[in-house]
Amino acid sequence: MRVPTADPLAPVTPSAAPAGGPIGERTDPDGWKSVVVAVRTALPEHRYTQDELTELIGDLCLAPGADRTVLRRLHGAAGVRTRHLALPLDRYAALGDFGETNAAWMAAGLELGERALTCALEAAVLSPSEVDLLVCTSITGIAAPSLDARLASRMGMRPDVKRIPVFGLGCVAGAAGLARLHDYLLGHQGEVAVLLSVELCSLTLQQRDDSPANLVAGALFGDGAAAVVAHAARADDHRSGRPAVVATRSLLYPDTEHLLGWTIGAGGFRPVVDAAIPDVVGARIGPDLRDFLAAQGLAPDDIETWICHPGGPRILTAVAHALDLPDGALDSAHRALAVSGNMSSASVLRILEDVTTDTPPPPGSWGLMMAMGPGFCVEFVLLRW
């Protein structure tokens, strides 16, 4: 039941919080934490420049002979240089109804998902049979049996592996999925939990749709998969040098369902992307994140590594201003957006891989992962190296 509030952007918050932390927050009970053992990204082989994709999207979405000035301006301002696509460029025009695009999602998603899982497990020095929980998220296609069921059998996971297929969280699912691994591992300390994100956003592009939402999505989104392997460790065990999840918080804002998501019809997933999203992020992220950090005795200045979902330049600017971040704090997000676009839930996982492997943060330093998604919702994950 929603608590009445004068602020339509205020999160849903019950009147009292249980012992151990605020509602929606998980901290380590009895001295346990969850540790990210490995994270790996898999990208399709088909890589294109933004200019190449601008003309393709113009061919697919605009009427023949239509002026492309606005389209080219949108693509030029998106902060994207290159993207990877599930299919070669010349295949998209031949895609028909939702059945065809979903079949393409299944075929490419299985290949990418298996590649991401295999690489992550190899990096963790684990076999598929050692996985106890597999969480699989995608918002760009649907299947029953789900991707995780097909991959579990295909890769040789145990018949008793626990599976959680997730649809609907969208871009927030990378951070939320890691948070849910953390929740699970606190109660299953001897187990291995894996998160797999498979997002083939190019297959949701709506042909002959020149709506602003479709054109903005076509300017930003790319394809990819990412997998995270995690296990539990004692809170005082700092031997690994790997990022550990210390606390998480989920926030769902009422009366904002219209801002982001899909309308689903015969043509598949038609994007909903409201121009007010950066305003909501700018208004809420600052106070909500400061409150979350304060519950852990921290402030934004204590965070050395920021892992922010690269929703687009305007969203990243809104986050930086709301938190008064120093120049360069969100460079990892801007780089990820430039080289692979917004890969929905896989993006923050790719950034986590980049910052962990390219320039590992100092031991003992704090990191903060955040992402936003349909609902409208946000997820905060506090990390420590």
From TrEMBL:
Q: Where is the signal peptide?
A: none
**Pfam entry (one):** Chal_sti_synt_N
Active site per UniProt: C171
The organism is: Streptomyces gardneri
- Domain (Chalcone/stilbene synthase C-terminal) spans 252-384
Is Acyltransferase among the key words of this record? Answer: yes
Q: Which InterPro entries match?
A: Chalcone/stilbene_synt_C (IPR012328), Chalcone/stilbene_synt_N (IPR001099), Polyketide_synthase_type-III (IPR011141), Thiolase-like (IPR016039)
Domain Chalcone/stilbene synthase N-terminal residues, every copy: 33-230
Q: What is this protein called?
A: Stilbene synthase
* Classification of source organism: Bacteria, Bacillati, Actinomycetota, Actinomycetes, Kitasatosporales
An example Gene Ontology molecular-function term = acyltransferase activity, transferring groups other than amino-acyl groups
